[in-house]
Amino acid sequence: MQRLYFRFAPPVDPSALGTDINDAEQLVDVLKANSSITSLDLSSNHITDEGAQALASMLTSSGAAELIELDLRDNPLSPAAVQALEAVVKVRKQLALKVGALQQPADLERTSSGSTTWGKGSGEGGGSKELTKGPMFRKYFQTGDEEDESSAGQGEADGPLGDGGMAPEELWSEVKLLVAAGTPSIPLLSNLLQQLIAHLNRELGTLPVPPYDAAVDGSRPHIKGCIMNLEALGSVLDVVPRQVVMQYGSEPQPAVGSHRVWATEVVSTLLAHNLTAVDHLVARSKLVPRVFAISLLHPMCSALHARALRVLRSSCVSKVSALYAPLFTAGLGIGATVAGGEELSGSLQQQLADRAALALGVPSGRRDPVMGFVLEACKVMRACCDEVNRDSIFNSNVRRLLQMDPKWSEFVSEGGLLAQLCKEQEGDLGGPRAARPQMEDSQEMAEMGGGLISSQEILALLHGMSAMGMQPGQ
Questions:
Q1: Where is this region: Disordered (predicted)?
Q2: What is the DSSP string of 207-272?
Q3: Do the Cβ atoms of 364 and 297 come closer than 8 Å?
Q4: Which pLDDT tens digit goes with each residue over 196-216?
Q5: Least confident range of 38-47, 50-59, 152-161, 326-335
Q6: Interatomic CA distance for residues 271 and 278, integer angstroms
Q7: Terminal Cα-to-Cα distance of the chain (whole angstroms)
Q8: CA-closest candidate to residue 240, choices 192, 185, 296, 285
Q9: Is 412 helix (H, G, I), strand (E, B) or coil?
């Protein structure tokens, strides 16, 4: 956690501010990749509109990712520059911006000895209480001061809906702008999607039981805004992040991107309540097969896989067949192709069976990282066909579609490949556990009770040897 107080060299002629623009741009270049500064004081630095615009562009592009306090007071900024900076704050909610005139604290006093006293009663801890009201302190600590927390929200925007957030129209407008900006906007895009998820959960929790048409009647603005912008949500999935180097490899690999994880969470949230009207709209958007196409392409993203499994379960129990039926057709119903070619990929059940077959006979630790996701998805689909098991999510239409595939029927048959892999798994995604090595029986071990010696017994034995003056190995 760092606070940076920056001061440019003052120009000879205060009216000649052109040289300061270059200084500001150099500072922006330094801050772009900085991930430690949380507070930046640039007050009284003769920063003009060009410098402010450079700062705004850098912050919008996720530069200085940890910055939560920016002081630009007493700089010659035009209303347009201030408006550009305030637009950044709308996206980066955690950023506190200070603009306007720089005023000295009213309670700054000079004592007779020449020392400076900040705040009245500072010797009684008054300054400490003021410190805990700052945004930097609140980010890292919970004060437990309800008065401070409640007052912190006063005077700030409670949101047009009284929920402390953005209006649906404003939120989705920002989402579309960030999608158009491409890869650099992914962190900000993820933040907006997390806000949306919080709103959706709150509104879905207020639906009557049964919900009837309350989810789409417009009385829940964020639900309505979301289902009206499903195409934009699909565009979020199209934003491809830059490649990354994995922990156990040296070559760059395709990344999922946190925005795709949260977009999948939005789909999961919409489908969780099995609202028929919502299911129809999501089915029309083809978001479900797109989620699974991305999930199968990224074997090492468990965060995405966990949410995709919830999407699969909700889809398979839906009354809307258009939601799950495309999954069981070639190309997943969206024309998905085999990597690097034009041939349509197999149906979901065929792709899962093919991936699972590759794990047969492969030792634990050497299997494809996607194997855990594959087996859990197979279990969900098998449960859809099991009307006897009390834990099943039986759906006769899903069973009919799956039984039409002879390859799947063989895969899930009694004693088939799925049964073998599930038996090996034994509750662990990584495969069977290593067997404990057997120790040879001996009279000495038998006298000690047989089996392995516990750590407590080893410590007791060492303490006894120490008391007798013996050293280990004697």
A1: 106-166
A2: --SS-TTTTTSSSSHHHHHHHTTHHHHHHHHH-PPPPEE-TT-SSEE----HHHHHHHHHHHHHHT
A3: no
A4: 999 999 998 888 776 666 667
A5: 152-161
A6: 7
A7: 54
A8: 185
A9: coil
